[in-house]
Amino acid sequence: MTYRRIVVTRRGDLSGVEIEEVELRAPAAGEARVRALASPVCQDDVAARVGNRPVLPKLPFTPGYSILGVVDAVGDGVNDAHAGDRVVALLGTGGHAEYVYVKAAELAPVPDGLDPAAVSVLVLNYLVAWQVLHRVAKVRAGQSALLIGASGGVGTAFLQLGRLAGLSMYGLASPKKHALLAEHGCTPIDYHTQDFVEVLGAAEPDGVDLVLNGMAEAYFRRGLSVLRRGGTFVHYGGPQSLGGLVRLVAMLLFYDLWPNGKHVKGYGTHRVGHADRAADWAKLFELLGEGSIAPVVADRLPLLEAKDAYARLERGEVTGVLVLVSPELLAA
Predict the structure, then answer these.
(1) 115 lies in some domain
(2) Global pTM value
(3) Is residue 204, in this structure, part of any structural domain at all?
(4) pLDDT value of position 179
């Protein structure tokens, strides 16, 4: 029996993206074989292919940072996962495939009755937003926040979770995405035509409590300039090169030590262990089930249209998240 997966064979444009048919193997000891139902497309998938991350997966590789699926089989020594279990996992790579092999210890259960595509968006985007807000910044109701990159996958998660947390939010986005920000109670700022430092200087003369930066390091100095004394700046966007990583670490250290009363912190999903991730996913699943959050799924596409999904994301056409889904979900 065989299955299909997306494979990147060379760095660069989409001509290096192919569909590969592979023999289905039995799971190894400690491993689970998961039939993928939904896997979002994210900026890291594009960055790994293009080559603008400090650490890159070895070629050839399959993109796909996260998945939701059903356990199909387990290897020796696996006692906490069973065939038929609906699960999620944070992978880094490998999710854009019909089947995925995962260390069973890295899986987390999903409650019945939740939309698989929506759940899959929680695995990375909402996890990042939740952990930045509650584990890193430790937000409080009534605080003000600037969202740098407010309309993408993580940005829309910040909009919903920030509103639930009682934040007063300002967000940078292009005009065509302003309606979405306003819908979530966020004051939109057009980064093409408006100077966000001037806008916030008038709206928040003492500065905002939080600046959440998912974009380039270039926003560091100007983002800090609108942060009040005692406020917190969190950088969660991935650097684009090894040199960028070195500069980012240096900037984090420099600005955090600078005696101006402002706190600068970095965040990455690798900094939080699986037990804490699973606990945060469980909370997010609960919020989804009760209708308190509703991930913005821009489109649901079959796996074989992954290349088109990557192209749409790279062109900046996507508000929310594109999700690759199995045929059974498309037919539902």
Answers:
(1) no
(2) 0.93
(3) yes
(4) 95
